[in-house]
Amino acid sequence: AGTQTQFSPRIRLNVFPGAGTTLYAYYDRLFVPTNVEELRTITNSTIGAVAEPTLPERDHFFEGGVVHRFPVAGLVAKLSAYRKQSTPGIDDATIPGTAIVTSVNLDKVWVSGVEGVLEVRPDGPISGYVNAALIHAYGRAPITGGFLPTNDPKGYFDLDHDQRLSLVGSATYSANQLFVSATAIYGSGLTNGVTTDDIPGSHFGTQLTDFNKQFKVDPSTIVNASAGYTILAGRTIIRPQVYVDNLFGRHYLLKGTFFSGASVGRPRSVQFRINVGV
Asked: Which residues contact 44 (CB under 8 A, 6 or more apart)?
């Protein structure tokens, strides 16, 4: 592909209409090169494949939002919206039959999202936050680059990291020497490996509210929890802690085989720690 360059301005505007409110607008012209292009070209040459260059990703990224700090209960709210268009885009693909990941080009990539966060940090032992995000990341063929030819999707498709709706809620209780925390995570589902090529005549939506459920794994909800206690013994501080991931032992599929192998959710795991300070 030879030497690639780009002028990449970055602009941010902040407006403060009140003591507790910030409005902002942001633009970034991103340039993301790949660092395996020469290795990929050499490898393809040794097997007699035509070497299509993996080009740097070139993005237009726009974001706008508002942050408001309420005068009560340490309440902070943030609402933002963003849009990224990549021409071309870059994604990671796994070489068939291996665990080796390489970069490939997508003709175009679009990512749109709306995200809201509400944090509560009042005076007292309890704090928490809620985060909600509605995001759509999709691309358009053809797909070029990589080490070996694969059966790539045609037309439009959701990216392998695309999950339409994500919700996270967390609460922490901390008083004296004790802390207890719990976090619930909901995901509407990543790609399942099915594309419009596999379902002739199927509809693929490109809007933010198009969930494209026929191309997604089932939704999942998991809960993580942790607790700890601080013990003072003279000049020694002992802090036993326990962390539990997937508290209720839910079995779920994270994603299907698409650009990379299928991934399953982590089973319940329990981790104990003891920190000792002298």
From this structure: 50, 51, 147
Give the model confidence (pLDDT) of 190-204 as tens digits: 999 888 888 888 889
Beta partners for 196? none
10 Å Cβ neighbour count for 112?
18
Cβ(157)–Cβ(204) under 8 Å?
yes
Burial class (CB in 10 A: 0-12, 13-18, 19+), 151: exposed
The residues, ordered by sequence, that sit 6+ positions from 90 with a Cβ below 8 Å of its Cβ are: 32, 34, 54, 56, 57, 103, 104, 105, 106
- Rounded to two decimals, the pTM is 0.84
Which residues touch 258 (CB under 8 Å, ≥6 apart)? 160, 191, 192, 193, 195
Residue with tokens 């507790």: 20
Six-digit token pair at 85?
């268009």
Q: What span, in angstroms and rounded, lies between the C-alpha atoms of 204 and 213?
A: 10
Q: Would you say 183 and 169 are in contact if contact means Cβ atoms under 8 Å apart?
A: yes
Determine contact, residues 14/64, Cβ cutoff 8 Å: no
